[in-house]
UniProtKB/TrEMBL annotation:
EC numbers for this chain: 2.7.7.-
Lineage: Bacteria, Bacillati, Actinomycetota, Actinomycetes, Mycobacteriales
Keywords per UniProt: Nucleotidyltransferase, Transferase
Name of the protein in question: Nucleotidyltransferase domain-containing protein
Every Polymerase nucleotidyl transferase domain range: 110-138
Amino acid sequence: MQLNKPFATVTPTLDGDVLAVLASADVTFTISQVQRILGTASGEGIRKVLNRLSAQGVVLHDEVGRTHTYRLNTEHLAAQPIMALSRLNSTFLHRLEQHLTEWEGSLRYAAVFGSAATGRMRLDSDIDVFLVRATDSEDDGWDQRVTELARLVTAWTGNDGRIIEYTEDELRAAVAAGEPLLDDVSKQGLTVAGTRAWFTAQLRPTRRS
């Protein structure tokens, strides 16, 4: 799946893109506003989709002068499933955070980075997860946890989970060596365990140099 295009999991049509826009905020939209947000769809195509969704009652249509406005009907029976689909990205991150809380003291920091964090996923993109293992960890099941994490990411999304792991000592060595991946995590990463402040502090020796 593409976390940045959640409705594509159930429909590859323009309907999903339009619903994603309407579900993004509890406000009214004009056809031109929807078109600007989507960027690639035609106004006529958007109009047909909105008329079809209005006929189903999923979208509320109003006319003010010559301006036609549309909004998601939040009282519709389908509204909650639509909203849930629109939140797949945040649902994935929350589920990941909840799972990683079970790792207790063995995990110092974790973040999702790469295309899953920047909103540029393709259908075949990996989901990259960066982990830092605590130096004093005595978790004999660490390797099994990492394997299970990769399996869960794939089960939740259909995408391969790519786990990049460091111990704290390895992280310090990578910082000293100027490992470019760490800059990617710092600039784009979405923290799902530990604190961003801790991770940023580990990078300061490289930046001072």
